[in-house]
Amino acid sequence: MRLGLHEEVIATVSRTLSNFSELSHLQVGELLTHKASARSRYCANLDIEAAFSEARVFVYAAASAALEAEFLSRESYAHLWAGELDAAETRCRQVLDVRVGFREPEYFTPIEHSNARAYDALAFIAARREQYDLQKNYTRLALDECDRASMRDVVFEANLLSNLALFSIDFGDDGYVSERLERMPELEWLAPQKYEIMRSLAWSNALRGDYLGTFRYLRDAGDVANTIPRKMRATLDRAYFARQLKQELTAREELDFAERLSSRVDWNEVATNEGELTALAFLSQEIAATLPVRARRLFLRYKTLKSKLPPNILATCDRRAWAEELGVDATISRAEGNESRAISLFIEAFEIWDSLGYRVRAALVARDLAALGAGSRFAAYVAKESSIRPRSWFASITA
Predict the structure, then answer these.
(1) What H or E segment, with its residue span, contains residue 375?
(2) Domain that holds residue 217
(3) Would you call 63 helix, strand, or coil by DSSP?
(4) 267 DSSP assignment
(5) Residues 14 and 140 in one domain
C-alpha cells in the first residue's frame, strides 16, 4: 500500500482469502479494507460505496473500534481521491465518533492513527475551501493524536509536520515545528519531509530578521535534499535572499549553481510531483532580469508539465499556487518590457494573497506594483506591513 503497488495489494488479498478459510471476522475485515482502499486508487470511476461494502459486513461484525476507525478513515481518503469532499468529511466525522469499548480485540493499527488521518483529511478539505486557519488547526490535532498512540508512524508524522511547517513561511514558527524537527529520527527516508521543514523554517527565521538561521536552514535543506529539483529550490532560495540583502556576488554564484543543477534534470520524470516541479517555475523567475527569453521558455515548459498533474492534487486548484504563478509570469513580463501586462498580473496576485490573509506575500507583490507606479495604495500597504514586522527581512529590504 505505501509503495503504491495497488494492483499487487488486490491480488495478494484475493489470494490470501482463497487460501485461508479459518480467518476471524477481524482479519477478513482488515484484508478487505485494504483491498477496497487499493481498488479506490487503482480503478477509475469506481463506486466507492460498493467497493467498501464487502468489507463493511466483516468490519462491524468484528466489534473492534480500531478496525472500524481504520475502515472509515480509508473510506474517507477514497472519497477525497474521487473529489467527493462532503462524503469524505462525513466519514472523517464518523472516525472521530468511534468509541473504544470494554475488552477490545487486539488490532495492529492504533485507533489514534486513524483519528490522525481523519484530521489530516479534514485539513485537506479545509484547504480546498480556503479555510487555512482550520487547516492548520486540524494538522496540529492530527499530530496530537500521533503523540497519544502506543506505536509511532514516523513517516505519517513527518508528512504532517511538513504540511504544518509551510505556515511558518508566512506566519512564523512559535517553536513547535523547530522543536519537533529536533526530535525526528535520523532516517534517510525522511529526507523529503525534513527538506520541506527546513526550507519553511529558513523563511520563518527571515521573518524574525535571523539571516544566519535562514542561510543555515537553507544549507541544511540543500544537504538533505534527495532529488536535484529539491536541491535546486533550496539554492534558489539562497540566491533570492542573497539578492534581497544586496549580496550580489553570492546571489549570482547560487543562481549559476541552480542553473547547472537544472541541466541535469529530466523534467518529464518529475512532472507528477508538484513540489519538485515548482523549482522550474522559480528558476524562470530568478533569471528573468538577465535572461527574459530563457525565463519565458522555462515558465511555459513548467505550465505544460503542470497540466499533466493529477486533478486531485491540491496545487491544481489552490489559489495560493495560482498567485505564485501569476507573480512569476508578471516578473518575466516586466523583464520583457511589457509593464502593462506585468501590472495586471501583479494586481491579480496581490488581490488573491490579500483576500486569503497572506499579507507578507501581498506586500511583496505590492512592492513590485509600487515600483511600477501602479498606485499609492500599494506603497502604503508595504509601509504598513513593514511596520508590523520591523525586524523581518521584508521590512529591511523595503526600508
Answers:
(1) none
(2) 166-226
(3) coil
(4) G
(5) yes
Q: In 3D, which of 52, 4, 48, 49 has the Cα closest to residue 31?
A: 52
Asked whether residue 113 is domain-assigned, the answer is yes
Residue 74 — φ and ψ, nearest 5°? -65, -35
* CA distance linking residue 59 with residue 105, whole number of Å: 12
On whether both 306 and 327 belong to a single domain, the answer is no
Nearest CA-CA partner of 282 in 239, 340, 220: 239
Angle at 225 between CA 223 and CA 226, to 5 degrees: 120
Is-contact 230 279, C-beta < 8 A? yes
The answer to whether the CB of 324 falls within 8 A of the CB of 137 is no
Q: Are 90 and 53 in contact (CB under 8 A)?
A: no
pTM of the model: 0.91
pLDDT tens digits, 330-371: 999 999 999 999 999 999 999 999 999 999 999 999 999 999
Q: How many domains does the chain have?
A: 4
Contact 36, 54 (CB under 8 A): yes
Residues 6+ apart with CB under 8 A from 202: 213, 214, 215, 216, 217, 218, 221, 237
E strand or H helix at 224, and its extent?
Answer: helix 211-224
